[in-house]
Amino acid sequence: MKYRLLDLLACPICKHFPLKHIAFKESLYEAPREPPAKTCQEYCGWLSRRVEEGRGDCRECFAREVDEGLLTCPNCGRWYPIIEEIPHMLPDELRNREEDLAFLKKWSSKVPEEVLKAGVPFNLAQQA
Description:
With 128 residues, the chain is an alpha+beta fold. Helix content is 16%, strand content 23%.
């Protein structure tokens, strides 16, 4: 997932923007020579802040991708995995409980405690 995608993504359930993110595994690519023509308009995902608070080096952002990670909604408590560079942002009824729990277990050392214990729609506390 490109960091600049965070300028567009909102929670599909409650529509909250911006989402929080954590990169567990990241790929680095050669940075573009020139600053990109299209940059974030409202939210800089690379620096996790609103654009009006300042931009970072957009070339640095364009040189990175999140391979594995997590998106969380601070409003409704939902979390969405990023798997093989793709954010899986499905409604609750279309999510696969076993796959989501396996993702949480795999990355449990990097997932925030509140997601592990009380994340929506699934969390590891529900298994007990």
